[in-house]
């Protein structure tokens, strides 16, 4: 527990054993994530809005619980970072997952119902759909990528607050999106993709100039994250080409496959 309150900037790497991608500890975390996602999704589906559900009228409460847990986690993170004497600028919510966490909180707290009920509130209903699709297209893959290829491997996998926070936050992020997709409260709508992609590009441009101006690496736009899966694209001259390729593949898979399934099933 000597390193429990350390961050990646303060931990003594000569004395502290971190972890490796897909070692035993990492795989246990991934199995734990799958169990949490499966149990929460099943519970959320059972918590329907009608009388026939096992736990009626509590989906909004579940969404709020996720939002509260994420807020508490973020507050504690900043307390720990400040206590460690690390500049808070390096922990601004400018990573894709941090932005997605904020959007989960907003999405969970929006005063809309589910399904068709969302359309009864024109303004919040529009935000609900677009934020939901942004989380589906961007937040879900970003959270999964962080869980599969964590950038905090210098920290102890269990005996460190920041490591625990990173794993649990990404698990909450991915599970939230999975629950709502399974419940069809986040519906893949191809018409939302241009807006989501434009929003992502605007964010990336702003974050890139921030990175260059203040010597940061948010969104990994200045240099690669350790063991990043897009590293092979560096051979093409710029590893950031990989982001565009992956985004195009995500659009094809996350929107094209459901559309194909719907079209096939309707015949």
Structure description:
- This protein is mainly alpha-helical and 267 residues long.
- The chain has one domain.
- 59% of the residues lie in helices and 0% in strands.
- The chain contains 7 helices and no strands.
- Helix 3 (96-109) runs antiparallel to helix 4.
- It is globular, with a radius of gyration of 19 Å.
- The N and C termini lie far apart (60 Å).
- The relative contact order is 0.13.
- Mean pLDDT is 90; it is low at 114-120.
Keywords:
mainly alpha; single chain; 267 residues; 7 helices
CA-based shape = globular
State the helicity in percent bands. Answer: 55-70%
Average pLDDT number? 90
Quickly give the structural class: mainly alpha
Gyration radius (Cα, Å) is: 19 Å
Number of strands: 0
Low-pLDDT segments, ≥5 res: 114-120
Major sheet characteristics: none
Number of domains: 1
Q: SSE string, helix = H, strand = E?
A: HHHHHHH
Number of helices in the DSSP assignment: 7
